[in-house]
Amino acid sequence: MTPERATAVDFTDHVSINYARILAARGSPEVTLWGFLQPLTTNVWIGILAALVVYMLVMVMPSCIPDKTLTRSRLRRSSFHCVRVLLQQDVDEGSSWWWWERVVLGVWMLMMLVLTRSYSGNLMALLSVRLIPEPFKALEDLLKHPVQIIMVKGTAEEQAFRTATSGIKQKIWNLRKENRIMRFGGAQLDGVQAILLEGKSAMITLDVYLKRRMALEFTKTGRCMFSLGNMRYIPAVEAMVGRKDSPLVPALGRKIVQMTQSGFYDYWQKKIFPNLTSCLNSPTKFAITTPLAIRNIWGMFLLLAGGWIASFLMLFVEIRFLVPLQGCSLNEGRISF
What we know:
The protein has 13 helices and twelve strands. The chain is α+β, with helices and mostly antiparallel strands.
């Protein structure tokens, strides 16, 4: 039902109310290469660094310990014990500490224990689950990905995009300048299924037709090949039409009300289109039992190699620039810098 059509025909009572949504092919299950970074969010990293700074400041406060018992080397070792705990290294020299140092370090060790145990558990869960990417949840996602957008000619939703003067709908319609909008007529929709399955396009139309397309593919293959976007746009009221001032229109309207209120319309849809709801809530996470391959975790080895390279660079800088300044001495078979 649109205002333009209402000038030419009369509408009966509505049969159903639908919304335009996005339909696209589902991706293949994958393991993210940087999954080992996901258990900790940005706020957690900021909290850890802030706590680390506070701990080091507390350990080096001159007012906490008399000056005569707190040497420069003692300060340096005491302040960096928290870093050793964070990196799962041992901590010694505890017998010469003051009681408040032991309390502060004990609280820090307890905090790091909870953090590392939580991280290892979440990391194991992430590595044992494969995710199916669904990149097109909203219209904004279509602007971020260079995909073809399929619309049906002459529909109310296509008109809403075409007549939009601002907002996200206008931005989507402006993509036709980049040849990213494909418009099909009603008689040309048979080939849309194959285009969508290629994974390089997404379709925007009423969800009732998208659900039927998903059901037909599931009936044929037994798999959920499509994903439906969460966001709904452009409410569309579906009804029957008749000639202007025709007495059949109100009579049909009363019958339509009886049909919809009794549930016949939904019943007929499910009978005509089996598996209509089979893929609406299909899982996007799958547990795996196969061993991990290098291609799934090479990000961790890349991080390790980066740490080694940085360490050797620092060693070169120290030997090249710091050793000549401080000198080198040989004492009892050991070289000290």
